[in-house]
Write a structure and sequence with these properties.
Length: 218
């Protein structure tokens, strides 16, 4: 009887101590959130980093598959001269970027947006803003996708290739139209190069992406 009573008392004390401990933690966490304690901000950043890391890994895997398939936009229909305001400007290239190529193939960035769940956005861009350029043009839905992708805006600019086919602009010689094979190889090599760079710089890019994601949420 006495042994049973002692055990009950010990169990009660343990429960009381545990309850007191967690009550203190909850109260501390609430106070930290209200006062903007740096530790709370660090935790939020780590959570955003982890979430965006998973998104980035999935998107880069989609991009690897796109590159391996080796089918990229090509053709001169609906061509527009690229301007100096375009971040993809190249004095040796004439044509601007397009979301959907004349051959019916999506550009790399549009492919990523579509395969990650926003096909409607890509359809609207192709129909109404086919020359949409990240870094020059503004679209709220595209910006939102970038913020949640784990990629930085700068990386998306690098992914988006300009001048899908078309003649090259040279001062000393007449324009020369590349073959479709030349164009496909050029885009594939470009994407392979930046994919390797993205993987190498993932940690720093994710820190930047997490910071921007939290700033947009605040």
């Amino acid at each position: 009887m006495m042994k049973s009573l002692i055990m009950k008392l010990m169990a009660g004390m343990a429960l009381g101590i545990t309850t007191f401990f967690f009550s203190g933690v909850i109260a501390w966490a609430g106070a930290a959130q209200k006062t903007g304690n740096p530790l709370t901000e660090t935790t939020l950043t780590e959570e955003a980093y982890s979430h965006l890391k998973l998104e980035r890994e999935e998107i880069l895997e989609i991009l690897w598959e796109y590159v391996k398939r080796g089918e990229f936009p090509f053709g001169q229909a609906d061509a527009v001269a690229i301007s100096r305001k375009d971040p993809h400007f190249d004095p040796n290239r004439i044509l601007t970027h397009r979301i959907l190529g004349p051959n019916g193939v999506l550009c790399a960035l549009a492919h990523l947006i579509s395969k990650s769940g926003d096909e409607d956005l890509v359809t609207r861009l192709a129909e109404k803003e086919n020359h949409f350029c990240v870094g020059k043009d503004h679209n709220q839905n595209v910006e939102k996708w970038i913020l949640t992708s784990g990629l930085t805006r700068e990386e998306c600019i690098q992914i988006q290739m300009p001048a899908m086919g078309g003649p090259e602009r040279r001062i000393t010689i007449a324009p020369v139209a590349p073959t479709e094979e030349d164009n496909q190889r050029r885009i594939q090599n470009h994407l392979l190069t930046i994919l390797r760079m993205f993987e190498k710089n993932s940690d720093e890019s994710l820190k930047t992406a997490a910071k921007r994601y939290l700033e947009a949420k605040s």
